[in-house]
Amino acid sequence: MRIATDWLDYELIDCTEGERLERWGDIILIRPDPQVIWKTPKNARLWGKADARYIRSNTGGGRWEVYKSLPPFWSISYKDLKFNIKTMGFKHTGIFPEQAVNWDLTRGIIEKAVKQGRTPKVLNLFAYTGAATVSALKAGAAVTHVDASKGMTSWAKENAAASGVADKPVRWLVDDCIKFVQREIRRGNKYDIVIMDPPSYGRGPGGEVWKLEEEVYNLTELIKGVLSSDPLMFMISSYTAGLSPAVMAYILGCVMGTSYGKISSDEIGLKASSTGLNLPCGSTAIWTAED
What we know:
- This protein is α/β, with parallel strands linked by helices.
- Helices cover 25% and strands 32% of the residues.
- The chain contains six helices and 17 strands.
- The chain has helices spanning 100-115, 131-139, 150-162, 177-187, 212-223, 245-256, and strands at 2-3, 10-16, 19-24, 27-32, 52-56, 62-66, 74-78, 81-85, 121-125, 142-147, 170-174, 193-196, 201-203, 209-211, 233-238, 262-271, 278-288.
- The protein has an eight-stranded mixed β-sheet, with helices on both faces.
- It is globular, with a radius of gyration of 19 Å.
């Protein structure tokens, strides 16, 4: 498991009985996590001093129970990046802190390519609030950011401005990711790095249900069509419980082939500061050009 250990403004303090106790800057939140099925003692004193807690409803969804006044949004930093966060519907804050390990990995590949005289073209699909986009821009890449939500894309632009990269080469596109890739293939547009973090479930324009575990192979095969002739990386992240890192790596290997490059896969996670235990927070499979 790769653990995001370089955060200063975020901390997973504890996790037990289906919940996480977290510090986001100076604000303490309690959020549900279905993977936390253990029942260890709540010894961390901040369990009783949270600013807000997300309460799930038995009928679906839920609500934030606010104990202290919260700002409409606040900022946290990761290294030289800055993100605006807030309490959103369905427990989210706009950032997945465990993904910092993937931002760093991608950034290292980009920075190496920049030193060699390349300006890598990055395609960030299902790009959400743009943390990976902002990190890639900071490293010197040109980024195409695609997400179907206008609100999330506007938020990503705010994060780019907060991190000082709003003037960097970036395209912000509100679009269906699959349809966008299909058009890019027809146009002949290519990318050196593709990052995707697709949702576990979705609905198509006709209301049809889209399940990642049923579609991930076809999606991976489709997206290979926009990789350049000298690609650097293809990264797939997933929060779908039914997709193990090994399965994701096998799919990526089938699509990319084994004639050159390297495929790796693992869980990513966070360490609880009060117990030292590592919380798994999803999986990532990565193809890179270098062995």
